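During the reporting period the student researcher (J.K.) took over the structure-prediction task from the postdoctoral fellow and processed the backlog of single-chain submissions. One of the processed entries is reproduced below for the supervisory committee.
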Amino acid sequence: MASNVSGIFFHLSDTKNRMKDYSRKWWLAVVSLAAFTLALVSVLIGLALTANSGLGLPVVVGTFVIAFSMLLVWYVFKIRYSSNQMFDRKTYLRLAGSFLILATAVLPVSLLTSPSNPIGFWQAVVTGAITLSVMLFLIYEGYPRLKDYGSPGILATAGLLIVFALVYMTLISDWIIPYNPFSINVGDLREPPNPDFPLGTTSLGQDMLSRVIAGGATMLQVAVLSVVVCFSIGVPVGLFSSYRGGNLDKGIGLLMDSIFAFPGLVLAIAISAMLGPGVVNMAIAIAVVYIPSYFRIVRSQVMTIKELPYVEAAIVMGAKDRYILLRYILPNVLPSSIIIMSINFADAILTAAGLTFVGLGLPVDIADWGWDLTLGFDVLIIGAWWISTFPGIMIVLLALGFTLTGDGLNEILTPKLRE
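J.K. obtained the following structure tokens:
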């Protein structure tokens, strides 16, 4: 009887010549993935060994060990529902136990160095391990299912991996950066990339690599907070307004159209100028700009859904409006809202960078890709290209990850587009 294990780019079976059946494309994909993973792990270990905190290696090793242990534990529970497996439950349990023992042996070593922030250390390890385990789950469990959708599934997987990789880097950034990102004169002023400073230094002698690694935290905070505010206001207002109809719907629709009529960046600049700098204020300014997007998408769908026979039948049977909205209408508008949310992340990141570029974003004493991009632009004319290039690449990568995720999910969740 054949036993199968599905994962990324591989499908193992109990046949004598199964290795010969794989195509060159399969082998190229496996080799490329292995090379990329090895390079990424090597870079992380290199950063860990030169980290300013002295605890980079325990953090990196701990996150990887715990993440693999979590994945193996998942497989232990998974094989309980499948009899056709190449390894039994005891084998996976032994592997998971070995990883957990290694984790418990590695992490306490860091306590001997008396970290100044033990709570932050363990928080970075745990959250980093959870993020890394999500990436592994996407690779070994998500891809075999998403690949059935063709290119949309591949786009969604690639986008999610980019996003979670940058989130993982941000979560452990305080423990793997070579220098304090705020320390000045750690090197010569505007020193180009070299072995001591791989990404060069800023006009104040700050290490560019440390600022690039640490700068993603603020950008992600602004993006997540703004999108949460947009979603939690735009979706409920769109549901209630369009279901009720009448003058209430007309009034709210007119307000949303008025906001939508302004160019997004111009409106965000005006709101930021009134609120002042800060993460929360910037998130509110961005949220106000994009709330109409959720409202218009939800409203257009609710206007169609509430006329369908099953909704009318629920009304005739005496169902309450709250029950109809939550049971029959909301599940049908959530897929579109999630797609808008993923694309809105990319818009929020670019808008946040634009606000900082014009001086209305975050305070200058915060490590932020937008500020590094702005300050690097001022010295670009004298040849200091690296100060603005590397933060710009990170902004593009993060926005690209969310954009790919949104485009892929849009086609996956919309059957008409797949056709």
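The committee noted the following: The chain has a mean pLDDT of 78.
J.K. will present the remaining backlog at the next meeting.
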